[in-house]
Amino acid sequence: MKTEYLGLELSSPVIVSSSPYTSTLSHIESCVRAGAGAVVLKSIFEEQIYRQAASLDKMEGYGDAGEYLERYLGDAYKAELLQLVADAAKTGVPVIGSINCVGSGDAWIDYATSMQAAGASALELNIFLLPTDRRASAAEIEQHYADIVRKVCAAVTIPVSVKLPMRLTNVLSTCDTLLARGAKGVVLFNRFFEPDIDIEKLTFQPADPFSQPTELRHVLRSTALCSHALPQLDISVSTGVHDGAAAVKALLCGASAVQLCTAIHKHGYEVIGQIGSFIDEWAARHGFDTLSSFRGRMDYGSSEGEFYQRVQYMKYFPHDAE
Ligand SMILES: Cc1cc2nc3c(=O)[nH]c(=O)nc-3n(C[C@H](O)[C@H](O)[C@H](O)COP(=O)(O)O)c2cc1C
Asked: In the chain, at which end, N or C, are there fewer CB atoms within 10 A of the end residue's CB?
């Protein structure tokens, strides 16, 4: 089933999110063969690489730091990335370049324009500023998001979407600001690396990087609210889309596309086509012949939309507590 996302016509609303599954040409070809409507390339994390490189440089005994720096900081790395964009663009599906912007510098502008020149159909800005300063207000931090988006949108002619973090105080207001700065769409939401603690060894350990299906529910509510408040903004849902039913729910809430990562980890690339077929079969069963005939049908503006406003358990008691 076709969809329109960021002004691009996609053969399927199922796209592959920025992840290891889009980090090489052969992985991207697997996504395309399995029926992906588009691919979002693995993010370029230039600012992070600079910081990491600077700290590695100070570390004694890190024998391969020199090689590491050469690998990631050199022009060769950028050329490799742009070659991937160009090669991926020939696979037949729109390629969305992804930039992880954190710095206030303008290095991103150069990456954005270079990706456009290399053949990217759109850009996804993956922005997250972890608040560690008690004096930085939410408004200040979000202003920084808006500044990045404004600069990138002014520099490119291809559509730009913003992949947002999950815990914003008012996602609608942030989306409204981004729309005013030129964003064409948002991805709800990114899911980040999270540190966990081993309480026996008193050490840190990485939490499971992959999502659980239940994580979709919060995303559905935000999508339903956002799609109703800002119909001009295209939404793609990321986090918790593990099967066809989850994808249909996201589309009913107003998403134009869904993005997969964990589902591919669990089931392989074939899941892309299986979810696409599920959407088609479900739509046929319900008499919908286009995506626009059911997209957003269960958003916040729908007849029972106030359901999304319920956040407290006022009357509910589990049976064993009665
Ligand atoms: C190993 C791994 C690497 C990822 N790398 C990126 C990345 O480079 N850029 C990005 O925007 N998101 C990245 N993500 C986040 C995914 O694109 C996606 O938003 C997240 O996994 C939630 O979707 P899911 O429930 O389908 O897994 C990564 C996720 C995983 C598990």
From this structure: C
How remote is the CA of residue 107 from the centroid of ligand 1, in Å? Answer: 23
Is the CB of 62 inside a 6 Å radius of any atom of ligand 1? no
Residue 17 pLDDT greater than 70, yes or no: yes
Tell me, yes or no, whether 322 lies in a domain: no
Q: Tell which residue, 224, 216, 217, has the closest CA to residue 303.
A: 224
Q: CB–CB of 181/153 below 8 Å? A: yes
Grade residue 73 by pLDDT with cuts at 50, 70 and 90. Answer: low
Which range, of 97-106, 250-259, 264-273, averages the lowest pLDDT? 97-106
User: In angstroms, what is the span from residue 261 Cα to ligand 1's centroid?
Assistant: 6
Tell me, using a 6 A CB cutoff, whether residue 20 lines ligand 1. Answer: yes
Our measurement of the distance from residue 137's CA atom to the centroid of its chain's CA atoms, rounded to an integer in Å, reads 24
Cα-to-centroid distance, 162 and ligand 1 (Å): 14
Residue 321 belongs to some domain of the structure: no
Residue owning the nearest CA to atom 8 of ligand 1: 43
CATH code at position 297 = 3.20.20.70
Beta carbon of 40 within 6 Å of any ligand 1 atom: no
Indicate whether 144 belongs to any domain: yes
56 belongs to a structural domain: yes
Task: Tell me, using a 6 A CB cutoff, whether residue 209 lines ligand 1.
Answer: yes
Summarize the confidence of residues 74-90 as an average pLDDT.
Answer: 89
Helical residues (DSSP H) of the chain, grouped into ranges: 25-33, 46-58, 65-73, 75-89, 107-118, 138-155, 171-180, 216-229, 244-252, 262-267, 270-285
pTM over 0.90: yes
22 in contact with ligand 1, CB cutoff 6 A: no
Q: How many distinct structural domains can be found in the chain? A: 1
